[in-house]
Amino acid sequence: MIVFTVAVLLLAGGSGAAVAQSGGQTGNVVKYHATMKDVKYVYGVAEPVARLKPGDILETNSVDAFGNAIQKPGDTMSMVKGDNPLTGPFYIEGAQPGDTLAVKILDLQVEGNQGIGAFAPGFGALNETSYTPMLHPPLPEKIWFYPIDHATNTATFQALDSNFKVKIPLHPFFGCIGVAPAGGEARSSIVPAEFGGNMDSPEASVGNTIYFPVNVPGALLYMGDGHAAMGDGEVAGTAIEVPLRARLQVSVIKGQKISWPRFENDDAIMTVGAYRPLDDCVRIAFTELVNWIHNDYGLSELDAYELLSKVARIHLNEMVDPNYVIVASIEKKFLPSKKR
Amino acid sequence: MIVFTVAVLLLAGGSGAAVAQSGGQTGNVVKYHATMKDVKYVYGVAEPVARLKPGDILETNSVDAFGNAIQKPGDTMSMVKGDNPLTGPFYIEGAQPGDTLAVKILDLQVEGNQGIGAFAPGFGALNETSYTPMLHPPLPEKIWFYPIDHATNTATFQALDSNFKVKIPLHPFFGCIGVAPAGGEARSSIVPAEFGGNMDSPEASVGNTIYFPVNVPGALLYMGDGHAAMGDGEVAGTAIEVPLRARLQVSVIKGQKISWPRFENDDAIMTVGAYRPLDDCVRIAFTELVNWIHNDYGLSELDAYELLSKVARIHLNEMVDPNYVIVASIEKKFLPSKKR
Amino acid sequence: MIVFTVAVLLLAGGSGAAVAQSGGQTGNVVKYHATMKDVKYVYGVAEPVARLKPGDILETNSVDAFGNAIQKPGDTMSMVKGDNPLTGPFYIEGAQPGDTLAVKILDLQVEGNQGIGAFAPGFGALNETSYTPMLHPPLPEKIWFYPIDHATNTATFQALDSNFKVKIPLHPFFGCIGVAPAGGEARSSIVPAEFGGNMDSPEASVGNTIYFPVNVPGALLYMGDGHAAMGDGEVAGTAIEVPLRARLQVSVIKGQKISWPRFENDDAIMTVGAYRPLDDCVRIAFTELVNWIHNDYGLSELDAYELLSKVARIHLNEMVDPNYVIVASIEKKFLPSKKR
Amino acid sequence: MIVFTVAVLLLAGGSGAAVAQSGGQTGNVVKYHATMKDVKYVYGVAEPVARLKPGDILETNSVDAFGNAIQKPGDTMSMVKGDNPLTGPFYIEGAQPGDTLAVKILDLQVEGNQGIGAFAPGFGALNETSYTPMLHPPLPEKIWFYPIDHATNTATFQALDSNFKVKIPLHPFFGCIGVAPAGGEARSSIVPAEFGGNMDSPEASVGNTIYFPVNVPGALLYMGDGHAAMGDGEVAGTAIEVPLRARLQVSVIKGQKISWPRFENDDAIMTVGAYRPLDDCVRIAFTELVNWIHNDYGLSELDAYELLSKVARIHLNEMVDPNYVIVASIEKKFLPSKKR
Q1: pLDDT tens digit string along D63-83?
Q2: Are the beta carbons of B270 and B329 closer than 8 angstroms?
Q3: Residues of C at the B interface (Cβ-Cβ below 8 Å)?
Q4: ipTM of this predicted complex?
Q5: How many CB atoms lie within 10 A of CB D165?
Q6: Which of A26, A119, B60, C137 sits a CA distance of 20 to 30 A from A340?
Q7: Which CA distances in Å does B187 have to B35, B140, C222?
Q8: Tens digit of pLDDT for each residue in A115-154?
């Protein structure tokens, strides 16, 4: 199902924001630098900031989830103009509704020397939110600053109420990555759904390919909400929030229609389920995974279901955005050879 | 909070089902062999099958989740007399309501050469169940047999609808382990809750210590539902179901009251949340973990909450029993030194 | 399905706590007066306080949900020894597992001149609870006293923070009514489930018959948690909590097995779904209702499903106990004649 | 809070699709006839089909949820081009973000002599859907036709699998009514959310006023998905689906910001909660209702919470759309006089 011939996809590059010949790499390199002047706050149809051909490599960046507004002790959440400003959209030539867009993450680097953690109003698994409201007074606003050490590839947690510090290994990923939704919808940058979006998936990191359904001509790819590291569930509402620099390669799988985002690397196939409650996320991700195994690897649906009950992995990405996100996966070593 | 002096607990052994001096081990060894004649189907107050002193080592066994009723192709689920027959209860001397029972799992061995997987009626994340009923016809009954190879420590999945086979590494654990509930309740062996029970936690395996609230004199420990291996979520309703042989060591932490089961090993502390939907499991497990960190490691609650948002792990154990189970954890390397 | 011949059931009364000939009524009258000395806190197998024959009328009473511990301003929730003390159990002669117990409520009277409302710790749809915990400070303890006026059949709400008062019409019902659970379970008096229990159903009131599955010999009927009036959802965690005096008539439907409690009166049939989230309550109650219509009124399951989509009623009884409760119903005027 | 001076709002009418002087009524009458040529499938910013002034009366119509595509036995769901085609948008002069739009429903008439019920793919509380997927085969497609009798104001259910027929009283309402969402979002016509939309609220009927938050200039009002009658929960996925003719009056409450839709009539105030699971719908609707009572009627929040626990009503509108909908209400007779 995910089979495609690279040769077909890697058409010669055209004009972009800035196109350079990539050395040993297939595809041209398109460079685009995002600033707060041209970020977006919805996934939807908008004027592309650059155009990519299948096989092209995109070098770009993202501001942090707060639009880089929080910089030093004393700054407050009221200084944030909008959550999750997005870089994009990028138009991918030849991508048409009914195709699948593949985005391979080649490199991600944390920009700057500091990340932010905060109790963002309305976010958090252990406090009342807009969609799980209660009558308690809200938790107090708190902001933590995480010094980033690029040499050791760590961020440092510093407790606010005691002297404790501890280093946390970096695992940079895009909290937001997605395409224009189907059916003429436009969705807020805080929402994850069928089009991807604010999935807060640590799987959106180097070495993995992300597949999205193409819903509009050109797919219209967006990304943002860089995370330097995050715990499962993102329970207090934020990761270590950072600006990112990224290298991504895009391709198009013609005529393959998927319903939800998927991840893949050399070792595993992974499916996304997003909504609430988490129970439904699990159901979505696993029916997707059963279907993927059935269609591409040839097990019957019930054999696939049984096998998953013995070897599947579930990664609860976040339970703090309007929709929650689960990734279900199986290692390829447990699967038959892929059908051709 | 979990600090206790082993010397205090390891009182000289008394009479049990069968007591032997343990060689280099602390505590006596109590042996008890369970058969289908004396299994139980509820966690509650019942005549103890043996008595243990704190520090004693229990050598026992469990029949499989089907009471060993499914043995060969052609056997059907209608032959199963009751789900999750339990070994026990074991009375632990000195355990009183308000204490904590600690059970360290020293050894677990799969008995026999075969495990079972099945679509158990009423179980399964992708089929209608008693508590998520629908109007569809149910999925057909299916049973998979998993040959166990003790030499390679693997079980083999054999597809029913194609020729595919694959080996799965063994990770034996008790699907059921728990104590008599609080407040005079008695609960079915298929239910996980505050008293533990059918948690289907792969964490109930060698090297880990499980903590339970003591609700009745003697705590009354039960175990069963052996699993040779299981995928996250146990999505089709069963693991590789097997009889087990076990060595466990029990101790009592006097005067420490916990609300939910906990796990601990050298590397991590782990808390259990059980109910439905999964959203509430997450909330329970994380408030427990915040409290544990706050009380034993001295971080403020809000610092603990923030730190977990950056480094916590979530393990979705099962979404198929009447209550669902999540384990939340943090590695000790991210925590301050334990308070004394 | 619910057809039974009263003549068959109304065998001559035997000995009870106190048996009197009922005048024009069928069946003997058994009187039993409950006090805090002999209340129970679990639904389970216990020594019966009285025995009833099918057709007998029970005259009894219940203490309030707080064991009548809260009496005047200044009293606190810490004075409450246990939630929902239960009157019973009553043994119904001839009721055997696999039968259905029918309990018709003939009369309910509020005892005394005052009802209580309170923020009971751990209860409430808009505050954190044991099973939906959060990190907020809890809402403050508050107790409201509701003067009862028997002449006008009203209770009066008196605001604590302003001078506002308003009269509320009485609709007395048992918050708790249920039988011993199946499978050897014993369940807390705060839990509603398949055996009934803390359903907080205003349907448990005069004029309605309640059906319960019989799980143990004698069924073992309990009741308590009297409510003088309650809003849908019981959202703050309590109704107007009162002691009650009751007249009930019991009968047994031999050989009819039901899975969940049901209500019926001259105008409607009603089914109960209890668990969480509410979504699953709805699914349980409606599959029960589809089955009831299909089996007793002869519509196909899919016709019944469609018809319910046009005329069903849903009553959200409570969303504050450990399990939540929904009652689904259809008016008999929309149904075919009952099959005989 | 909902106080406004009609005199201020009823500015002289301007140009519309068709403007006529309304006789004894305040405000002009604007007529707009919707056809399948100009329906919309998202709530969002689009070219207005007509403009209204506050106080104006709109006379318009809507096609049915299937775009009138299902007309006779043998027609299939595959003939439906899109769910819930919407009439609109209507631009309301003077409505600005931060205001509240009030829509009073003056008259609703079922058009034609037939309504439709169907198992719409992906909808239904007792079958698997896109967001609660399972591995069962789907329920078979079925369509029921409901003859409408305008003389008796009834529709007739006719069983497909037996000879049973029964009349159902008409209660016409808009399943869909809403405005352009906030934050630049555009949402499918099958979704209910903060902007209203596919709420399937029987409260959207004659005699009630609906309040919406104004998110964009002109508010941009849409309506559709006419229902002749519907059961609570709309459990099989459809009501009696019909085209409607409508008379509505719009007004604008300047400077009043609400977060979710609200209903009001002479007897009650009502709030909407929409998402999933239903638990969160209840939390949203009741925090909204507590706030409304607190702000407009002067009870403290905790007094309001307590009072609602005694007298509130909950109406489960639907549990079949992507988001579920609950309406919570309180009768005005239980409230203090409104603050001015």
Answers
A1: 999 999 999 999 999 999 999
A2: yes
A3: 41-42, 44, 131-135, 183-188, 275-277, 280, 283-284, 287, 290, 301-302, 305, 322
A4: 0.93
A5: 11
A6: A26
A7: 21, 29, 19
A8: 999 988 888 999 999 999 999 988 999 999 999 999 999 9
